[in-house]
Amino acid sequence: MGDAKVPAADQTLRILTLLARSRGPLPASIIAARLALPRSTVYHLLATLQTHGYVMHLPEERRYGLGLSAVELNSAYARQEPLARLGRPLVAQLVDAVGQSGHLAVPHGRDVLYVIEERAVGAPPLITDVDVRLPMQLTASGRAILAALPKAQVRALFPDREAFVHRHEDPEGIDRYSRLRAVLDDTRTRGFALERGSVTAGLCSIGVPVRDHRGWPVAAIAVTFPEDSVPDARLPELASEVLRTAETLSHRIHGRAAG
Fold this sequence. Notes:
It comes from Leucobacter rhizosphaerae. By secondary structure, the protein is α+β, with helices and mostly antiparallel strands.
């Protein structure tokens, strides 16, 4: 069946493709102009996509961005092996090099889903096992991904306090958007995500995003270690090893170097 017989399907896919390739949410007028579509058609299709969760509407900004259902499609693709197969030997090499446990996680709605877990020799078992999901804002992997997203996209994911789910008492107190924004700003400035005790008391994690060809974060690589085993002065050195691994994986999936 040719495109001419299914114009709505073609237009819907073009809208999703445009939103996926954009650095952030777009106004409907811009979507209509870039795709040379009538505004009425664009509004109708956006409303349908919003109903099914593939598009999020940001009413204060009068913009539209990818919704949780679209994000979950990305996670589903990642679970079907490409990232895991490419990343597994790299994470294993990282663990051998730094002597700390490492993992690869992908975004899954407001969570991260762990697809690789490599434990260092003698290291304690971690909660971040394969197929475990954890709230993004609590983990170094999640913060690394969120810090690499446009602010408007992060705001769409966390529109209110109800969006912040906690496993236990979070020592870093990320229970509202303003606090999350401050943590993500620190992450950008530092150059890597840092989590201390928010997932498991006494453990610390460093995370760096893995980016695709558009510079969009599709995953994150992180290492986890006892908080008292690595002095603060050594954290940047450890982070540089994680960054090197993330850059290699980004290159292997035809992505742009992370950083």
